[in-house]
């Protein structure tokens, strides 16, 4: 559905919708907002927890604040309920760091992590049946494994340099899918909000104004663990991905043995 026909987003001024200004920000980074270069880790370690006076960062954060304030006001008028917390699922670690560095937001961070082999399978399964030679398949697996490794390491560094233990949480996809209601209940208690079991059960059919996201949110089935990768990801690729990512994967509690996953179903 075009934004112009959405009752919420059509009410947001165009100047706020055009807030990201990726060209300006990417020129500063000399890379994409969603890519981590090796030298970025030094920046995050040295300046991760500091407030920033950078005009580009401050301008980005102010525009994001104005956009979120506008969105919250529209939502409160639509539902006649007070919005206590707003979920921002942006996948850029720079976005997270800049909002923190601005000092304009009260942020709680949830680091949601997927098994690296499940991630590679999910991102690459469109090409699984394609006729590719082994070098191409290996390069693809390495590229995706490295993306998982670099992105999750960046978020882990930001977690520890910017937020106290009380302000951050780590959740595995498998734990969320197997213990969905218990996990959501714990998050609500952590945020100081009341858990609503009815809303938790019918979250898929509630009004959703998200511009993008996983298409699974439009399905009607309940949350459930997906171990498709364990049987469909080629064993050699699975081993290769594990070898690339295992130090961080083990840190997050993932195991090489897939039978541990199958026992949770």
Characterization of the model:
The chain is mostly helical and 265 residues long. The protein folds into 2 domains: 1-107, no CATH class; 110-265, P-loop containing nucleotide triphosphate hydrolases (Rossmann fold), CATH 3.40.50.300. Helices cover 54% and strands 4% of the residues. Helix 4 packs across helix 5, helix 5 runs parallel beside helix 7 and helix 6 crosses helix 7. The longest helix has 29 residues, at 134-162. The mean pLDDT is 76.
Helix content: 40-55%
- Return Rg in Å: 20 Å
Query: Which structural class is indicated by helix and strand composition?
Result: mainly alpha
The helix count comes to 13
Number of domains: 2
Keywords:
2 domains, mainly alpha, about 260 residues, Rossmann fold, two-stranded parallel ribbon, 13 helices, single chain, globular
Annotate the secondary structure layout:
Layout: H1 14-17, H2 22-29, H3 40-47, H4 55-79, H5 93-102, E1 109-113, H6 116-124, H7 134-162, E2 168-172, H8 173-178, H9 180-191, H10 197-201, H11 228-232, H12 235-251, H13 259-262
Parallel strand pairs: 1-2
Brief characterization of the structure:
The chain has helices at 14-17, 22-29, 40-47, 55-79, 93-102, 116-124, 134-162, 173-178, 180-191, 197-201, 228-232, 235-251, 259-262, and strands spanning 109-113, 168-172. The chain is mostly helical and 265 residues long.
């Amino acid at each position: 559905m075009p934004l112009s026909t959405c009752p919420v987003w059509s009410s947001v001024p165009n100047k706020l919708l055009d807030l990201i200004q990726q060209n300006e920000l990417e020129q500063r980074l000399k890379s994409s907002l969603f890519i981590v270069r090796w030298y970025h880790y030094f920046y995050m370690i040295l300046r991760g927890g500091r407030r920033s006076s950078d005009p580009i960062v401050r301008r980005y954060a102010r525009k994001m604040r104005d956009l979120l304030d506008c969105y919250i006001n529209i939502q409160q008028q639509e539902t006649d309920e007070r919005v206590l917390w707003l979920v921002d699922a942006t996948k850029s670690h720079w976005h997270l760091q800049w909002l923190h560095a601005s000092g304009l937001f009260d942020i709680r961070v949830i680091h949601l992590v997927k098994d690296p082999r499940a991630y590679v399978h999910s991102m690459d399964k469109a090409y699984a049946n394609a006729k590719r030679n082994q070098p191409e398949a290996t390069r693809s697996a390495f590229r995706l494994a490295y993306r998982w490794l670099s992105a999750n390491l960046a978020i882990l560094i930001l977690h520890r340099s910017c937020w106290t233990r009380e302000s951050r949480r780590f959740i595995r996809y498998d734990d969320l899918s197997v213990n969905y209601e218990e996990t959501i209940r714990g998050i609500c208690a952590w945020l100081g909000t009341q858990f609503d079991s009815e809303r938790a059960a019918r979250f898929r059919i509630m009004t959703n104004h998200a511009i993008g996201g996983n298409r699974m949110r439009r399905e009607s089935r309940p949350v459930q663990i997906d171990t498709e990768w364990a049987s469909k990801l080629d064993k050699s690729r699975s081993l290769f991905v594990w070898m690339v990512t295992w130090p961080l994967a083990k840190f997050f509690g993932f195991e090489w043995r897939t039978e541990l996953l199958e026992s949770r179903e």
